Amino acid sequence: MKILPTLRKPLAALLLLCSCEGVVFDSSLPDFPVNFSCSLVQAPYVVITTPNQYFSIQRNTNGSCSGITSTGESFSASKYDYRLGYGGLIVGNSPFNGYCAFDAACPYDYKNERKKVSVELQTDGIGKAICPECGTEYDLNNGGIPVKGDSDERLRPYQTHLSTSIGGNEELIVTN
Predict the structure, then answer these.
(1) Which site among 29, 57, 94, 101 is 20 to 30 Å from 123 CA-CA?
(2) What angle do CA 126, 164, 43 make, to 5 degrees?
(3) What distance in Å separates the CA atoms of residue 94 and residue 52, rounded to the nearest whole number?
(4) How far apart are the first and last CA of the chain?
(5) Does residue 44 register a pLDDT over 50?
(6) pLDDT tens digits, one per residue of 63-72
(7) Percentage of the chain exceeding pLDDT 70
(8) Which of 25, 170, 18 is nearest to 98 (CA)?
(9) What is the pTM of this model?
């Protein structure tokens, strides 16, 4: 079946709008640099090679990093050059979208109260995070959308891509 010449341009524009590539997400959170990488063969990061698993990581006051996995495992990292966005990072493996990353700051609390409140990754293994301040529950498996609570804005997403290291191990890189 031939597509009529008059429908080609509108159809192409519609396909571009539906594509995730190049879509700019307008967040109420301030812009902060993100530059994080982790080896997918090392604990605790190996947990996200399984779909529906996540970890969160935040900067401590002494400059080091600490976090928790969706299985409840706490960890620390001594890399001081990580850039973790505004409120820390949540990184994981969505069964629907593959590897993904979000800023851990609750957009509702920032937009309405100008407060930096980081959502808490739930350790029940079903891919959700809850803001301890406003109570909004975010579905990490579906792009960080709010499913309960006051927020109408999803968590700020960041770009992820896989890279193979010199030793042949896969590394996940998160940037903005």
Answers:
(1) 29
(2) 45
(3) 5
(4) 41
(5) yes
(6) 778 888 887 8
(7) 84
(8) 170
(9) 0.81
Hey, is 43 helix, strand or coil?
Answer: coil
The CATH number of residue 127's host domain is: 2.102.10.10
Cβ-based burial of 81 (10 A; exposed 0-12, middle 13-18, buried ≥19): exposed
Residue 6 is assigned to a structural domain of this protein:
no
CA geometry: angle at 37 spanning 27 and 100, to 5°? 45
Strand segments, DSSP code E, in 11-116 are 34-39, 53-59, 65-69, 74-77, 83-84, 89-94, 98-103
Looking at the domain assignment, is residue 5 inside a domain? Answer: no
Q: What is the sign of the dihedral through the CA atoms of 37, 106, 25 and 51?
A: positive
Residue 127 lies in a domain: yes
* pLDDT value of residue 98: 94
Does pLDDT of 24 surpass 60? no
Tally of structural domains, the chain: 1
